[in-house]
Sequence to fold (307 residues):
Amino acid sequence: MTRFAYGEEPFTARWGEMSWREPSPYSECWIVPGRAGVTAEMLPIEGLGRVGHFHALDRAAAVAVLRSASDSLFERGAGKVLGPMDGTTWEPYRLALDGPAGRDTFRGEPTNPPEHNEWFRAAGFGPEHSYTSMISTDLDRLYPGIERLEARIEGRVRIRPMGDFERDLRALHALSLDAFRHNAYFSPISWERFNALYRPLSPLLRPELVLVAEEGARAIGFVLSYPDQVPGRLVLKTLATASDRRGLGLGTLLTARIHRVAREQGFQSVIHALMHQTNASQHVSRRASSGDASLWRRYALYAREAA
Fold:
């Protein structure tokens, strides 16, 4: 096994073998050449480290790099190490668990062999947080309370499709920082990094499938969805409501409106993607789908604690 700092030898053959996304320059890297690799980094949250950019071809190599990387973080003061997490929760993280048989994957879903979960457990990691994706296949079953919610915001909140991409993306950045700040392991993200993560989605986005709720000139909610690679399927990726505007039913209304637009646009199903098991988005998904949503797949974020 070899340990080196990212940037030390980024163009060598053994680095190229790993086929990683680019790690942070503050990461250290652990590899079994040609067999497994992982990056390790302290998070900007006291006492937390993370392992990410995980790649492995066999159990022994996987366990070796995961143990070595997390042990090195414990030596640097981490009390808990999370994984897999490719930087922060803004970047790819979590592992897909065994989902319903025969299911494909949707655009943006974690894709990993099922055995990766066992390899993390063998390295001393256990499930820390659980997530699910749900699918709604009866778009004619709109939420029956939608008219009541519409009346509640009438004259106060305007819901519109995405307009100028640059302007709206900046508004979504500011709103996301507020809406998600109480999420587990949240850390703020700069506009430059947010832009780098979301701008590649622009070719997929249709204005009518990205809705922005505004109170005056202020964005107080949004829902972002895009067509999946499977024809007729829509992925609802992100739903956010300003922390001081919760209780209006805005999340349910935005989701129900996306269902209505999806039906009008000829979609047959909507996937509500990657919701934390205890998040209000689970309740929103069930309400806006009028009970039609069913399990698509489960996921886990793992953690290993210092001895």
Q: What stands out?
A: Confidence is low (pLDDT under 50) at residues 6-15.
